[in-house]
Amino acid sequence: MANPTVSTFSQAVVGAMRKLYPEKLADSSFDNTGLLLEAPYRPGHLKNSALLTVDLTRAVADEAIARKDSIIIAYHPIIFRPLKALTQSNTQQSTLLRLAQEGISVYSPHTALDAAENGLNDFLVACITAETPMVNGDPTGFEQHHSSVLTPIKDPPQGFETAGYGRIVRFHKPQTLGDIIARITSNLKLPGISVAAPQTTPAGERDQIKISSVGICAGSGSMLNGLDVDLLFTGELSHHEALAAIEKGKCVITTFHSNSERRFLEARLLGQLDAATKKEVEELGKKGQWEESLTKDFTIAASKADRDPFVIVMRE
User: Fold this and answer.
1) Do both 185 and 208 map to the same domain?
2) Which residues bind a divalent metal cation per the record (predicted)?
3) Could you tell me which residues are annotated as the binding site for a divalent metal cation?
4) What does the pLDDT read at residue 1?
């Protein structure tokens, strides 16, 4: 093995993630991506399996420990700011200590996954332009449109020249706000979303508002402020940011922060990572770096415990 202190399978998964979504794509001005917990290897203790999640909560850690996963791919970094200590009193630090004890590593792609072509933001583009964003790997029912990157990455790695943060979609033919809302709720599998429209528009006419351009950003959409588009589509926007947008005649759709991200894991990343990990396992085998005692079979699953902390509660 190249590194006997780390699970060979975990090495393969990390290698696959780095090829799919290089860490150089991440916004290093604030983000913390990469292998955040390199857990000591315990031979025979864990399975060749990985768990995908948006947030690495205590419930997700319990799930991974029960499943005996070797590694967790957590979209949001569980270590975001420098740590001065690791204690049991802090729930996130306690989770890290438990996972290290079990030998489960943690990798976070975060904004690298946002920026890459065919990554998270491009998935959100498909959610507003297609009836079904993924059928056998191909979006179906596309409305004619042009999509562009809002903020290109400077000096991207080879093969990722089109990467960048945020997206702008311009429809060849205007779409109604109601149709876009229907696509979003269907494609993200959500029971409801938050919608803000100019207060001069009667409530009964809101769904008929014509939309020719959309600004898109997964998670927090502050980077969309001031953008010259008809609609802002993001996970969350502050009260005052939303007011500023509708005062300028724009519409806003928010889905709660992590709901703009979670569906991507199951619909896209699951298949991408499975295929890329197979290639990594094959390469490790050719180099003689795959343990002979380990099977080359593996599983990658999306967490069942992971969910947004907020839910919509309707009064009867």
Assistant:
1) yes
2) 76, 114, 257, 261
3) 76, 114, 257, 261
4) 42
